[in-house]
Amino acid sequence: MSKRAQQLTIIGVLAAVIVVLVVVFSQGSSETSAGPAANSKEVEKRFAGIPQKGVVLGDPNAPETIVEFADLQCPFCGEFAKETLPDLVDKQVRTGKVKLELRLIAIVGDGVQSTTAATAAAAASLQDKLWQFTDLFYLNQGIENTGYVTDDFITSIYDAIPGLDVEQAQADRTSEAAQAVFAEDLALAGEYGVSSTPSLFLKTGNGDPVPIELESFDYASFEQALQAARSK
After folding, report:
1. Count of domains forming the chain
2. What pTM did the predictor assign?
């Protein structure tokens, strides 16, 4: 083969490699750019038709309340949200047996990114969209304390929530109202003696909250733990 032919062959191979890399990169970028938007319909379906007010999801007259303390960066909280919550919503909340109360705290790492996430969620709660925000967050959760909780990441979640006034939510992130929600969550965590996440408690009437002791995140195990708490 002549030198000229060899050069043309090498150029052709390099061109092919470049094309493959461009295609792979484009596909990867497409999946990344989809982000929370790819989960939007799933999340909307999960909470459709269920009353939501502030941090509470479910019929306000439900006889029982399950209080969850969580950190949005906590991978175990993410597992609970993905593995347990869908059945919990369908079988306990949608049926009016219980209502859920979500309290977000910051215990992962130095707490800075978790606080950023919690106050962004609090802003969504002011529009009664807390549960959509947190569910989308968990479905797109990164590795804790890697810096992924950026303004762009939060905006991508806001953008994926139908009916949310994104501009208002952005403004509310630093508002006194959102800070008050977060402060109340932290105070309640102290009152309940929370030291890890997720921590769940069952409240019935005016009785004291009873811990729901989780052994795993499959719904059958959760239901057993819930029944055990009910019997105390």
Report:
1. 1
2. 0.84
136: in domain: yes
What CATH number did the domain enclosing 134 receive?
3.40.30.10
Render pLDDT for 109-159 as a digit per residue (tens, 0 to 9).
Answer: 999 999 999 999 999 999 999 999 999 999 999 999 999 999 999 999 999
The full 3-state SS of the chain, as one line of letters, equals CCHHHHHHHHHHHHHHHHHHHHHHHHHHHHHHHHHHHHHHHHHHHHHCCCCEECCEECCCCCCEEEEEEECCCCHHHHHHHHHHHHHHHHHHHCCCCEEEEEEECCCCCCCHHHHHHHHHHHHHHCCCCHHHHHHHHHHCCCCCCCCCCCHHHHHHHHHCCCCCCHHHHHHHCCCHHHHHHHHHHHHHHHHHCCCCCCEEEEEECCCCCEEECCCCCCHHHHHHHHHHHHCC
Residue 122 lies in domain: 38-230
The whole-number pLDDT of residue 32 equals 37
Q: Is residue 175 part of a domain?
A: yes
